[in-house]
Hints:
The structure holds 2 protein chains of 2 kinds.
Chain A: E1 4-7, E2 10-13, E3 19-25, E4 31-37, E5 43-50, E6 53-57, E7 64-70, E8 73-78, E9 87-94, E10 104-105, E11 109-113
Parallel strand pairs in A: 2-11
Antiparallel strand pairs in A: 1-3, 3-8, 4-5, 4-9, 5-6, 7-8, 9-10, 9-11
Chain B: E1 9-13, E2 18-23, E3 31-38, E4 45-50, E5 55-56, E6 61-64, E7 70-75, E8 84-92, E9 105-110
Parallel strand pairs in B: 1-9
Antiparallel strand pairs in B: 2-7, 3-4, 3-8, 5-6, 6-7, 8-9
Amino acid sequence: DTAVSQTPKYLVTQMGNDKSIKCEQNLGHDTMYWYKQDSKKFLKIMFSYNNKELIINETVPNRFSPKSPDKAHLNLHINSLELGDSAVYFCASSQDYGGNSPLHFGNGTRLTVT
Amino acid sequence: DAKTTQPPSMDCAEGRAANLPCNHSTISGNEYVYWYRQIHSQGPQYIIHGLKNNETNEMASLIITEDRKSSTLILPHATLRDTAVYYCIVRRANAGNMLTFGGGTRLMVKP
């Protein structure tokens, strides 16, 4: 069974569109994250949610709006897509927020904005 | 969190031990050293972490120097499937599980 699953795996869309990426974890973890990996392969944290509450928003444009309907899901909605949004987006989860539990990552969603 | 420095790339022969170094000379007493790896087209995978003592699990061993300013990840018998980018990350205890990934080391295991 996949621990952290993201859909879709690939997403190609035009500038100005609105799109969503879904993430689900079946590990019973309390905390979930979104990371962005750009063309230079650097991974940067975008958001962190703990028990459905937003903990971290790392200077992400407000066109990006995470939604956590329950602890097992953290979806990412992006409005008015721009060329610079093209990247691979990774969802992750961990047992808790303040401890040392490792992160479990999904396999990413490759977003291409044309 | 302390900054880490890793060589950009390394080669290793299949079946041999792969020793990946990491420098974290500004590490604080309450900061842990974490290792993750990213195999092509996959999400990062947790490998191991430690504070002071050396650690070993089914994937690898982590050797931390006594002054904690550097560490080495050891893959005892590298296989072709270990070809990946390996990230060394330093993070404060109880500061949230948010990780900052640097450039990592691209390990190429060759037959």
